[in-house]
């Protein structure tokens, strides 16, 4: 009985040591992966990397992580024109089946799903924010975007009639959708009456409707769907064969 107790104690100690070593190893690997990702994507800050699954060391031997979660704050995505950028406040992706090299110089995920948040002030940069004539003596411009409820964006239009600004902006509820996997499109559900005048649809939509391309997301992930939320638009992202680093 005494020998059995000793064996049990040794087993518990070895188990605790293994767990401790495993946790130290995963912490080191997460740091290495985060540094590699920061360098690859030229990020301004180190991203969050969380390698899931236990034990970690057996996954290392297999060369594949079951699941890796990545979080990037204030990611600067391209706008497709080669010049501008759009800031994504919070980009989070859940990677499955991540094959990696021994020194973490490369890592490719079988699939990825996640979310991205684009603040309204960032999306507003694309809207027609300069005053534009929509009818003789009537001009309008987009002055604000906000949550309209039920997944809609509320577009605020400031209108002037013969040089006199109307006291209150006109609000338009708009649908927001994803086009071609890389573009957010905002389109008015119904046309507003500006200055008490019904204006031709094509003229009004030059102001109310706009698109924002979001290009160059990490690993080639793409936009899947989008809806308005309290602080901005929430975008669902997805991808296959997503290259994290290398």
Number of strands: 13
Largest sheet: 7 strands, antiparallel
Task: Tell me the β content.
Answer: over 45%
Structural class: alpha+beta
Span between termini: 55 Å
Number of helices: 4
Low-confidence stretches: none
Q: Helical percent range? A: 10-25%
Number of domains: 2
Following the backbone from N to C, one meets helices and strands in this order, namely HEHEEEHEEEEEEHEEE
Cα Rg: 25 Å
Envelope shape: elongated
The overall average pLDDT, rounded, is 82
Short description:
With 246 residues, this protein is an alpha+beta fold. Helix content is 24%, strand content 48%.
Topology readout:
Layout: H1 2-41, E1 48-51, H2 56-62, E2 64-78, E3 85-100, E4 107-119, H3 120-123, E5 132-135, E6 138-149, E7 152-161, E8 164-165, E9 170-179, E10 183-188, H4 201-208, E11 210-213, E12 222-228, E13 232-245
Antiparallel strand pairs: 1-2, 2-3, 3-4, 4-13, 5-6, 6-7, 7-8, 7-9, 9-10, 10-11, 12-13
Report on this structure.
This is DUF2993 domain-containing protein. It comes from Streptomyces tendae. This protein has 4 helices and 13 strands. The longest helix is centred in the first third of the chain and has 40 residues, at 2-41. It folds into 2 domains: 2-120, no CATH class; 123-213. It is an alpha+beta fold and 246 residues long.
Defining traits:
single chain, alpha+beta, 2 domains, 6-stranded antiparallel sheet, 13 strands, DUF2993 domain-containing protein
């Amino acid at each position: 009985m005494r020998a059995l107790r000793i064996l049990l104690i040794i087993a518990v100690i070895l188990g605790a040591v293994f767990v401790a070593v495993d946790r130290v190893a995963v912490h080191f690997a997460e740091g290495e992966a985060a540094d590699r990702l920061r360098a690859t994507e030229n990020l301004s800050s180190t991203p969050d990397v969380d390698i899931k699954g236990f034990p970690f060391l057996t996954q290392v031997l297999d060369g594949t992580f079951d699941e890796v979660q990545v979080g990037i704050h204030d990611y600067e995505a391209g706008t497709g024109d080669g010049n501008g950028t759009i800031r994504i406040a919070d980009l989070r992706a859940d990677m499955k089946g991540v094959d990696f090299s021994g020194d973490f110089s490369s890592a490719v995920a079988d699939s990825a799903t996640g979310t991205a948040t684009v603040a309204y002030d960032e999306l507003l940069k694309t809207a027609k924010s300069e005053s534009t004539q929509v009818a003789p003596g009537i001009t309008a411009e987009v002055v604000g975007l906000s949550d309209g409820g039920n997944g809609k964006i509320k577009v605020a239009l400031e209108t002037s009639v013969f040089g006199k600004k109307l006291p209150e902006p006109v609000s338009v509820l708009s649908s927001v959708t994803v086009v071609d996997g890389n573009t957010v499109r905002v389109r008015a559900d119904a046309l507003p009456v500006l200055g008490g005048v019904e204006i031709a649809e094509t003229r009004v939509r030059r102001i109310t409707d706009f698109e924002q391309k979001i290009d160059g997301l990490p690993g080639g992930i793409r936009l899947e769907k989008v809806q308005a939320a309290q602080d901005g638009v929430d975008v669902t992202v997805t991808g296959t064969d997503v290259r994290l680093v290398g």
